Amino acid sequence: xxxxxxxxxxxxxxxxxxxxxxxxxxxxxxxxxxxxxxxxxxxxxxxxxxxxxxxxxxxxxxxxxxxxxxxxxxxxxxxxxxxxxxxxxxxxxxxxxxxxxxxxxxxxxxxxxxxxxxxxxxxxxxxxxxxxxxxxxxxxxxxxxxxxxxxxxxxxxxxxxxxxxxxxxxxxxxxxxxxxxxxxxxxxxxxxxxxxxxxxxxxxxxxxxxxxxxxxxxxxxxxxxxxxxxxxxxxxxxxxxxxxxxxxxxxxxxxxxxxxxxxxxxxxxxxxxxxxxxxxxxxxxxxxxxxxxxxxxxxxxxxxxxxxxxxxxxxxxxxxxxxxxxxxxxxxxxxxxxxxxxxxxxxxxxxxxxxxxxxxxxxxxxxxxxxxxxxxxxxxxxxxxxxxxxxxxxxxxxxxxxxxxxx
Length: 407
Ligand code: PMP
Prior knowledge:
Elements: H1 3-11, E1 19-20, E2 23-24, E3 26-27, H2 38-50, H3 61-80, E4 89-92, H4 95-110, E5 116-120, H5 129-138, E6 141-145, H6 155-161, E7 166-172, H7 184-192, E8 198-201, H8 213-216, E9 220-224, E10 235-239, H9 241-246, E11 257-260, E12 265-267, H10 281-297, H11 299-317, E13 323-326, E14 335-340, H12 345-354, E15 357-358, E16 360-362, H13 367-373, E17 378-382, H14 389-406
Parallel strand pairs: 3-15, 5-6, 5-7, 7-8, 8-9
Antiparallel strand pairs: 1-2, 4-10, 9-10, 11-12, 13-14, 14-17, 16-17
Helix pairs in contact: 2-10, 3-10, 4-5, 11-14, 12-14
């Protein structure tokens, strides 16, 4: 991307003009949540100013308009990830709720005592705890795919974990700590050769990579709106129709029913069977708007530029004595986790903050991965297409000052 293009993009994100402790904000915490472009903010305000009425049940004009906008958004999202039908797109509160939905519904449908779920060592807590809860409920076991020293999953070990008791494989597309882009297509193909379905946690992938759920042949694919420049409280569960039809609903309530008597309830058709209660019908349109925004820039262009930033930051970080980067796969996204010898990550984060630089420190909701690496946590920078090399230079200079202070 040219400097001009980046400057134009930056001008569309109002928050990037904020000052922190009187310094320009440098926002390197994009893996936690992304900032919102004007187009998305405007869409939210437009929705509440012009299109606000509860959807699906109303005969009145405004309700029909709001319903149409919500369902148009669903269609857009289906096309964006190349789902074969918008009925395969379930709106959730985010990745976490989507995984909990599958853990409950698939768990009820397919799982029994002695069965197993396969996850990996680099999962976010939201792709660990729901499966642990299922295992406790049903008397099942979690099996863990290990990784090598670069932070890449060991596929030979993965294959050995698959057996007739495996009811699901659930792995992250991109690690929120290591940045590793996992070979999910290969992971899915191997599971399918044994008739095992696969869920892919796409929370860190959708903002950076063009995802095609049909090409991947994923059974379930989940992501969060707020990590891809949309609002909080909206997310997506893609599920293959054959699975969504078979598994029972997750929550009961309005919208998800066809007919209710005190004796018996019949459930609504897809996708509504999984959408109990009033959905975030403004958030859904904001999500579609955010996806349009990144599509307009171009996913390939975004990936190339973010890779350039990541390579540049990695090179500059290595200038620092005692630097250790966690996650060195060739195939990685714009996340860099690091530690500097003898300096606590929290101290680094707190001092960088005083320079207006937002990074994340700690276990990044991946405590088992920290245990595996035998560290308490890391400092994590995560870049977006609105970040610049100049910001990275400012960050490196500030980091060098922190290191000098502690040495
Ligand atoms: N999975 C991964 C890989 C993540 O990075 C995150 C967010 N940090 C989640 C799941 C959970 O997403 P949310 O909190 O939006 O539900």
